[in-house]
Description:
By secondary structure, this protein is of the alpha+beta class.
Amino acid sequence: MCGIVGIVAKNPVNQEIYDGLTMLQHRGQDAAGIISSEGDRLYLHKDNGLVRDVFNKDEYMIRLRGNMGIGHVRYPTAGCATSAEAQPFYTNTPFGIALSHNGNLTNAETLKQELFAEDRRHLNTDSDSEVLLNVFAHELMMSGALRVSPDDIFEAVSRVHVRAKGAYACVALISGYGVVGFRDPYGIRPVVYGRREGPYGMDYMIASESVALDAAGFELVADIQPGEAVYITLDGQIHVRQCAINPVYSPCIFEHVYLARPDSVMDKIYVYKARLRMGVKLAEKILREWPDHDIDVVIPIPDTSRVAGAELASRLGVNYREGFIKNRYIGRTFIMPGQAQRKKSVRQKLNPVDVEFRGKNVLLVDDSIVRGTTSQEIIQMARDAGAKKVYFASAAPPVRYPNVYGIDMPTVSELVAHGRSHDELELLLGADRLIFQDLEDLIEAVRHKHSRIQTFDCSVFTGDYVTQDIDAKYLSQLELFRSDSAKEARRVRSDNVVLDIQNAR
Length: 505
């Protein structure tokens, strides 16, 4: 999960890219970066940390000159967590191209071999985003054009679609020419574009979510469709073309469950409204299967379950209360490194208001259950605060399979619902009753009246991956690479390299 921004304007774009990345900070808290272009010069600053920390000096912003640029916020799903893998990535051949990427390539290893053996391109990191940059750059170079035309760019994107598998929503800056945004043929990860009428002409912006456009006063024009590319020239001309053969509209449904901000609009779906409908569907299930329930109060786990929880309480006719106060300075726990750190962070992140629990039968509502660490701790916190009974409802079905399309969801062995029955989960988590959303209800809640979406990627619930190139071998390799123990080993190796360099000095 990452956030991307690209702007072509009639005025300097450094501040507006910064503001856009700040609006997308929820999509990545590990690293941030901006590259801008003025004439034939590119200016880059990136590092690990939040946007406000990476750009905490005026000189960093002043150096980012020009009326065109792209930005990125990251949390890592592949490679390692060093600042060398912060984005945007850059290559000087041809023309000078920088790229920011949200997603994950499922054939990254094959592409690395092709880039080295056939395309004669060298990679500096383990990031699949650098792989994607070099594939796009190579295909653009193969046009042989001395100057880039829209046709050259769209042909290059078409060939990227043929070569690259998996999920990718990208913005690429081509020095001296413009910014191009493109999306994989399934449209798994979101990306939108908008425009703003300024005193000197039309400005354009591409971003992961519409909230980034809102903050800068841009009007949402459209989602970039699956397989489509949008090219905005330096002089403010916009070109749009479908570059894929037989695209299939299959966005990730987990964006609406957890990842996206509720005030975003993605694929013409209001995230807020989708979460309201999730609450409605949950209430209908409870009334259908447990009509004589004894729930006294509904309490959401802040923040993403608030909308669903409030609507659930309204439909059940019971009180809704804010029973947990959230510490705003603790990040999202399911993407934190290490089980011990996640467990500790739950109690640092949330503090119960015991008067809302004492002597009551409480229904806790969360967006999903992934590792189970948060759910288990919160259920115990509710009991410690004096709850008589603790019920737990998830706005999503059980997460039983890893995500391979850009969300750093745990491996199979770390998913609490994988291989366990409903009763086993209930016992393990310590709930008096456990309620999951049915998948059909979740799909209906998100899709609603949207007719263009052909299917959703629901692979974290079903194990059916829309790109149809994921097998047991791939998931086994993912297990070796993504597990907490593997990440810790890479972190130790990275720290040792830094120490060796320091000692050598």
